[in-house]
Amino acid sequence: MSKSLTVAVVGATGAVGREMLKTLHERNFPAAEVRAFASARSAGSKVPYGSGELVVQELKEDVFDGIDIAIFSAGGSTSQRFAPHAAHAGCVVVDNSAAWRMDERCPLVVPEVNPQALADHNGIIANPNCSTIQMIVALKPIYDAVGIKRIVVSTYQAVSGTGQKGIEELERQTRDVFNLRDPECKTYPYQIAFNILPHIDVFLDNDYTKEEMKMVNETKKILGDDSVRVTATCARVPVFYGHAESVNVETGKKMTAKECRVLLSQAPGVKVFDNPREKLYPMPLYAAGTDEAFVGRIREDESIENGLNLWIVADNIRKGAALNAVQIAEELVRRDLLGVKDRNVFM
Ligand code: A2P
Fold first, then answer.
1. Exposed e or buried b for every residue in 18-41, given b needs 16+ CB within 10 A?
2. Tens-binned pLDDT, residue by residue, of the chain (347 aa)
């Protein structure tokens, strides 16, 4: 591919934004120019890109003229406000926040799972929640082979999912504990160091958290199947990078653990890492910095007729956010889907 595109990263100073810049460069994305945007606080500062640096510019409504693709990871309110201006300028947005995911006008895409949904885009494409991405990439082959009736998932999510401030909180509190100081809680409601919080994002009227309901609703939207029943419990654990998930699946027809291992070992974006006798199973420490969703502990659920248990681990900043967003951008280029047909859909 010739390097002809102008690409923007919005939220370039954040944990995901920095990884997006790294991923664009590593994967040799066909960009003639990359522009970095963040809030006024960061304007003029520099972020690494390849062997050089980019000067961060302040995000404003009128910056999108001449930009082909803007990858956003600057929080929901920033996406809500600025993504429509980008689409209006003809710039296609790939948005990592939750702002547009359930909007019917926006495809919600995992390239290994539903790339065909990109064809109908109106200028804003949503990147799913990190926990949903790594689960669905491993479950889609099972769904296609034998059907899925119900999913019960429990997550163990790293602090980097909260952004730079989550990483800093775990670092600071760990030092505080070892120095016999009272750990200060700035980002989470309780101490995260040496603790587990069964609470990610805000609580809703049904007593689930927003994160849990994201997993429920996004899974159905990506599969395009409302009949799949999903229930989730999401917990934050004192791990820097890499989300882990215990996933129980009730399938439509029987699939043995052996069949599941063979199927998933051929699935794009998935790596089976499953040898109990050799004590081989996926862990955040080893998934960090990698691209795949690692699947292990594959077992038949002996409590029901057709069921499987899986343990899925992925780097939440890479496949869960930056990599998936860059893969969406690559797919847009490959399918010749840049440009916005009706620039007024979101205005
Ligand atoms: P800034 O560093 O200038 O605050 P993280 O998720 O790691 O906390 O990163 C959030 C990213 O979103 C940062 O790059 C941050 O920039 C950016 N951001 C936050 N608010 C805005 C805003 N109003 N306009 C543009 N970028 C924003």
1. bbbbbbbbeeebbbeebbbbbeee
2. 567 999 999 999 999 999 999 999 999 999 999 999 999 999 999 999 999 999 999 999 999 999 999 999 999 999 999 999 999 999 999 999 999 999 999 999 999 999 999 999 999 999 999 999 999 999 999 999 999 999 999 999 999 999 999 999 999 999 999 999 999 999 999 999 999 999 999 999 999 999 999 999 999 999 999 999 999 999 999 999 999 999 999 999 999 999 999 999 999 999 999 999 999 999 999 999 999 999 999 999 999 999 999 999 999 999 999 999 999 999 999 999 999 999 999 99
Same domain, 87 and 27: yes
| Residue 301 and residue 329 in one domain | no
Shared domain check, 162 and 58: no
Indicate whether 206 and 282 sit together in one domain.
yes
Atom of ligand 1 nearest to the CA of 74: 12
CATH number at residue 73: 3.40.50.720
Closest ligand 1 atom to the C-alpha of 17? 14
Please identify every residue annotated as catalytic: 130, 243
Q: Is residue 63 part of a domain?
A: yes
8 A C-beta contact, residue 324 and residue 19: no
Cα 326 to middle of ligand 1, angstroms: 19
Lining ligand 1 with CB less than 6 A are 11-15, 17, 38-39, 41-42, 59, 74-75, 78, 163-165
CATH number of residue 189's parent domain:
3.30.360.10
Give the Cα-Cα-Cα angle 29, 31, 37 (nearest 5 degrees): 105
Are 175 and 304 within one domain?
Answer: yes
* Residue 156 lies in domain: 131-316
pTM given for the model: 0.98
**Among candidate residues 116, 156, 43, 53, the one with its CA nearest the CA of residue 335:** 116
120 within domain boundaries: no
CB 71 within 8 A of CB 96: yes
Position in ligand 1 atom list of the atom nearest CA 10: 26
